[in-house]
Structure formats: structure tokens, C-alpha cells
Amino acid sequence: MILDQFRLDNRVAVVTGAGRGLGAAIAVAFAQAGADVVIAARTEADLRGVADQVGSAGRRAHVVVADLADPNAVAELADIAVQQFGRLDIAVNNVGGALPKPLLDTTPDDLAEAFTFNVGTAHALVRAAVPHMLATTGAGSIINISSTMGRLPGRAFAAYATAKAGLAHYTRTAAMDLSPRVRVNAIAPGSILTSALAVVAGNDQLRTQMEQATPLGRLGDPTDIAAAALYLASPAGSFLTGKVLEVDGGLIAPNLTIPLPDL
């Protein structure tokens, strides 16, 4: 049956930034599809809640509390997965971000920090995970969480957007290096209702404006991204590598404008 192609039975995944939002939704979806997961974030209480959901799906979660802005801490997750579960099949790079800032206030250090947080951490996990994937399973799937801002220009997002664009192209180049045994793909979410959009969720006027600027007429839910990640991680996505799935409600322009003073 075609639905069997979306199963992850007895596979093992590492999901970073898994305490809430997109990472939590992805980890739970993987568990519901049959995988055990190593989940990592900074807040133990959040991770324990996600681990409970994984357990309710009949699978195992190993919690790692770490500062995932540190590429070395991220790289260690690959070893932890093999130590805890004996193999590693899937790695999801879901850490990153940078605060909006006017272009002329964005320093070279801001750009460097954004690149390290959004691209350097992903590369650290890829380098650590791939040898384990090849040794324990012979293949693997890597999923990077980019952003619609990596392709749509928006005011005040020079550091964040540039880093996410870099992550998207990193995905393409890594896919070429690691083909055919390890697939590397990315997801570029649009506006998803996580804690990062708490201000939007609590402001009816702003939310309505964003929904009206989105062709599908709504903001995304974390499960929209989790479903895409499951597709990419599972045999259903076995003929995709080097691709960036745009899960953004059809955006062709940013649906949120940061007000800035004129030059």
C-alpha cells in the first residue's frame, strides 16, 4: 500500500530544536510513523513534554539538553543516537534564527553569527551523522529547515535571510557530494503559528493582514511542516535529493513587513 511508503519503522532520527514548534511536531510525527528519536533543545521541561508524546506513540525518545548554537554540541548528537539506539537514519537541522535589524545596523559580526547558527550548526551535524548513517544503515536522509525568507527579500532580514538562503544552497551542494547513499533536502516554511509568531496570534488585525497576503488564506500549522519532513525522511521521498520544498501557503512576496524609518 502507498501509505506504507510513509512509514519509518525502527529507524532512528536526530531532531534539533525539538522542544517546541516545528522541531517538536517533526519529532512526534516521526514517532507516530515508527521511529525512535533523539530530541535536543535548551529547555528540559519542553523536551520532556515532547518525549511523553513520543512515548504515547509507542516509540522511544532520548532527551539532550544543550546549547545548539554551539556546532560542537550539535555534532555530538550523532554519536548519542548511535550510543542510545544503535543506528542513525535521519537528521533534521531545525536550529537557527536571527532578530530583524535594519541593514545599516547589521554588523559583519551579525552576519557571521547568523551564518554559524543557521548553516554552521547544520554542517556540523551532517559531518558527524553521515559516517554513522553509512556504517550502521548504508544510507540516510538529512533535512534542513530553511525559510521562505531565504528566497523572498524583506526589509530588516539581511542576516537571517542571507543565512537561510545559504542553507538552501548548502542543501543542494551537500546533496551532490553525498549522492546516491545519503539524500539531503530542505523545507522552506512560510509563516507558521509557533511561539515565534505569538505576537501575530494575539493580534487579530495583524493576523488577518498576514492571512490575506497568503494565497491559501491562512497561516501554517507545525503539522504542515511535520508532514513535509515525514515525506522527505521516508521511502515516499526516496527519489528526491537537493530539493527545497516551499511549504508557505503559496507566498510570492513576504506577508509581514517590518516598519523602518526612511533613509
Question: What does this entry show, briefly?
Answer:
With 263 residues, the protein is α/β, with parallel strands linked by helices. The chain has helices at residues 21-32, 44-56, 71-85, 108-136, 158-178, 198-201, 204-212, 222-233; strands at residues 12-16, 36-41, 61-65, 90-93, 140-145, 182-189, 244-247.
Explain this structure:
It is built from 8 helices and 7 strands. With 263 residues, the protein is of the alpha/beta class. It has one domain (2-244): Rossmann fold (3-Layer(aba) Sandwich). α2 (44-56) links the parallel β2 and β3 (61-65). The mean pLDDT is 95. It comes from Nocardia rhizosphaerae. This is SDR family oxidoreductase.
**CATH homologous superfamily assignment:** NAD(P)-binding Rossmann-like Domain
CATH topology: Rossmann fold
| Mean pLDDT score | 95
- Trace the largest sheet across and list its strands: 3-2-1-4-5-6-7
Biggest β-sheet description:
7 strands, parallel
Q: Rg, please?
A: 18 Å
- The proportion of residues in beta strands is 5-15%
Helices and strands, with pairings:
Layout: E1 12-16, H1 21-32, E2 36-41, H2 44-56, E3 61-65, H3 71-85, E4 90-93, H4 108-136, E5 140-145, H5 158-178, E6 182-189, H6 198-201, H7 204-212, H8 222-233, E7 244-247
Parallel strand pairs: 1-2, 1-4, 2-3, 4-5, 5-6, 6-7
Helix pairs in contact: 1-2, 1-8, 3-4, 4-5
